[in-house]
Amino acid sequence: MQPERIRNFSIIAHIDHGKSTLADRMLVRTGAISLREMREQVLDSMDLEREKGITIKAHVVRMEYDAADGQRYELNLIDTPGHVDFAYEVSRALAACDGAILVVDATQGIQAQTLANVYMALEMDLQLIPVVNKIDLPSAEPARVAQELTDVIGFSHDEVIFASAKTGEGVEEILQAIVERIPAPRGRPEAPLRALVFDAKYDSFKGVLAYVRVVDGRVDGTAPLRLVQQRQRFEPIEIGFFRPEPQVTGQLETGEVGYVATGLKGVQQTRVGDTVTLDRGGATEALPGYRPAKPMVFAGIYPTDPDAYAELRDALERLSLNDASLQWQPETSLALGFGFRCGFLGLLHMEIVQERLEREFEMDLVATAPSVEYEVTRTDGVEIVIDSPAELPPSNDIAEVREPWVAVSITMPARFIGTVMGLVSDHRGEFDHVEYLDHAEDEGDSRVLARYRLPLSEILVEFYDQLKSRTSGYAAMDYHLEEYRPARVSRLDILVNGDLVDALSAIVPTEDAPARGRKLVSSLRELIPRQMFDVPIQAALGGRIVARETVRAMRKNVLAKCYGGDVTRKRKLLEKQKAGKKRMKMLGSVEVPQEAFMAVLKLRE
């Protein structure tokens, strides 16, 4: 296909505004899939995506469209996630595109994540096509939402397309707008091959499948290829595109999007953001890649069976190829043995990774409570970065601790401003400013965009759930890391039966530490199973015990066989039981269930 008849585009939107359904309609309209093959969210192939109703991975599909000018165009769609945790997936997908369709729900209007995606697309100089979706719903207000797009983002009324992905209304206009408004890819067909790797996944038979956008030259299966940054040579096994199932073509031209089966087995050999070129006579300069994703949440993941450590390492290697934002390194816990310290983009990302490890690799895991990254200046002037409570030096060795603060954007009806302000204050946050997105007759119904600053550790807990419940589900949130600020924090340790359970340790604000310790040991008393002996649970702050609860012993009825008779016999049996329990207490070990590690999260409830 000639580059001038190729269009590479993405669909961006806030979560649940209809991206995947719109993609389904486009696939049917262009004949990429038949009505017989059609099912809801056809691009969301992962079981987790279909269960949760969200897109987790960016998906690629090629469509062919006969436009009004009589020409046939090749449309390459990269469907992106909408949840804030997967913004990195969106940024990678947009780098392979020349334009994007901005989908906004006709009932909800512009949301926090909508604006975040718009700014990301504008930074990359992409052409945007605004679409007001779900106009078929009884509560839809397409005119109001179109006015929002005009006032807040700066589109003209003529640019806005009204559509219903559910009924198919407006899909033809969207396809025509893609052809007319999104520019053709710019590239040099005669130049040496340069193709950007924007995603990758592992295939058991073909090795690493690199998803590429060909920027210059062409790729075919006749010559060996090379990854510029990794300096890794390989001979391609297969070259093709997705429709949405893989179609082998043997070549990709300038401007096209497809895949190259590299045959590489080592996951470290292929990196997202690298450049594919010819091994001989190829390009010397790599394409601009991506900034590495910066994890914001850290947790320990351990196999319940210590012998499964090597299997867990292999599973993480496979998963990190498919998910470039997942970072991990080995760590050891006194309580849990050998495992890995993993870095995630957010709590949903952590939950998805844990579920994928359990389902796709059949691992049985224990995950510790998540924490954030702190910058610590020691008294000797050395600066260190820690992401685990176990790494926090003793208080005598600390000159200063700095914790991450995030800028939070919340869209909501104006009547909830006071409620949300109270929630933010409870979580050590501060108000920045508020903007009105529209003006309703009743001022309480006007939608506002409020901006706050909060410590990242505070929004990890139950902040989002509280926000939804206090605003009756109307609020939407987006956040990004802004700066590190000095903080007064301490490590809260938990001792079970006198033994330190390092996996239950947490870094908490010093002034809240005793209260949080009391709440935590109270929660753990309900969760830790009873033994044949008393189990003390203690919270310690710098070696000082600040709270204690006891899991009372189960007591066997040793007098059941005594029917009357001398009381001395009964006393003798009870004394014998008491001596046995003392011995058990010295030798016994207590099993701590997975729920206990997550209790650290629920300290505020």
SSE topology sketch:
Layout: E1 6-13, H1 19-29, H2 47-52, E2 59-66, E3 72-79, H3 87-95, E4 99-105, H4 112-123, E5 127-133, H5 142-153, E6 161-162, H6 171-181, E7 194-203, E8 207-216, E9 219-220, E10 225-227, E11 232-234, E12 238-242, E13 246-248, E14 251-252, E15 257-261, E16 275-278, E17 297-303, H7 309-322, E18 327-333, E19 337-344, H8 347-360, E20 365-367, E21 374-378, E22 383-386, E23 398-413, H9 417-426, E24 430-436, E25 447-455, H10 456-460, H11 463-470, E26 476-487, E27 489-496, E28 499-500, E29 506-509, H12 513-527, E30 535-541, E31 544-551, H13 567-587, H14 594-599
Parallel strand pairs: 1-3, 1-4, 4-5, 5-6
Antiparallel strand pairs: 2-3, 7-8, 7-16, 8-15, 9-14, 10-11, 10-16, 12-13, 12-15, 17-19, 17-20, 18-19, 21-22, 21-23, 23-25, 23-26, 24-25, 27-28, 27-29, 27-30, 30-31
Structure description:
With 605 residues, the chain is of the alpha+beta class. The protein folds into 5 domains: 179 residues, Rossmann fold (3-Layer(aba) Sandwich); 85 residues, Translation factors (Elongation Factor Tu (Ef-tu), domain 3); 71 residues, Elongation Factor G (Translational Gtpase), domain 3 (Alpha-Beta Plaits, 2-Layer Sandwich), CATH 3.30.70; 91 residues, Alpha-Beta Plaits (2-Layer Sandwich); 111 residues, Alpha-Beta Plaits. Helices cover 25% and strands 32% of the residues. It is built from 14 helices and 31 strands. The strands form 6 sheets. The protein has an 8-stranded antiparallel sheet with strand order 11-10-16-7-8-15-12-13. A 6-stranded mixed sheet has the order 2-3-1-4-5-6, sandwiched between helices. Strands 21, 22, 23, 24, 25 and 26 form a 6-stranded antiparallel sheet that branches. The protein starts with 5 loop residues before the first strand and ends in a 6-residue tail after the last helix. The mean pLDDT is 84.
